[in-house]
Amino acid sequence: MPELPEVETVARGLQLSVAGRTIPSVTLGKTDFIDDPGAVERELPGTRIERVERYGKFMLLRLTNDSESAENLQRALLVHLGMTGNLVPAATTTPVVKHTHVTFALDDGRELRFVDPRRFGRMAYLAGEALQEELTRFGAEPLTVTPDAFAKRIQGSNARIKALLLNQSVLRGVGNIYADESLWKAKIHPARKGSQLKRDESNRLLRELKKILHKAIELRGSSISDFVDTEGYAGEYQQHHKVYGRDGEKCLRCGSKIKWMPVAGRSSHYCPVCQRAPRGAGKRRVAGKGQWRAKISTKTEPRRQKAKPKWRFLTSKA
DNA sequence: CTCGATCCCTGGACGC
DNA sequence: TGCGTCCAGGGATCGA
Hints:
7 helices; single chain; four-stranded antiparallel sheet; 24% helix; DNA-binding; alpha+beta; 318 residues; 21% strand
């Protein structure tokens, strides 16, 4: 599942493989994950992929056309890989795998294919102010944020630290795996409130998060299900996970049993001894009863049907 | 402000 | 073997 290191891996691969190429044409399959499919079909042909960057968990394909200088990169294709998405360069003779939803022809005869079985990925063509506006919705880049800025965002909130790490408007790029791993390394319980973290804890957390992200990038990310880089190789960081997916196994630091609890709607893996729980953690108030009950999952009822709101990059006001 | 619940989606794991 | 069911999870939205 692509988080910052996986997206960085793919972006670097694409920078080497497709930067500089022009897109003669675009072919769309299913489009329900595209903000404005018409814009992609209309605007992409004839543009050049100037460079490929990572922005949080997004990839930015910076585009130019003939009349623009490469310095004026006011157009971009934003691609979010969701959980199962990937952008893969391929020869046209390479068989098209199932769930290939977008094909960008390239001027060297190859294709860039967007494949995403679950279609949790997102794609949008944005230009000018809309592009700028979209990018400002996101928080700081984890690899470069200063300890001061990080502490300010964390300590200024009563939300739980796990939720803050996952919140893309606080930090951009951190997902469930690297949140759990960095909290374990920094010995901070996921349910601690941001405002309750001491400055040295906030510093430690950021330091460990950066180290983990760098190491994971070095190892081309974590391949949990079927993540592969641009050349088809799996990442290796999953072999270094200390808590993620290890519930029931022994803590590699103290030998206690790794536990699991839902925090911020996501499974959180932690060591109950190394990462001391805040007061009241693991309990919640049951509405109307005035009782406390263990928070361990009461599984949800069967869902009802509901109209599907079309996903938008920008909060639509029209 | 912060929370949980719900929805999107499909493949893989698991139970019978 | 072949069903059905549950689950994973990033992110938007909505109501509490």
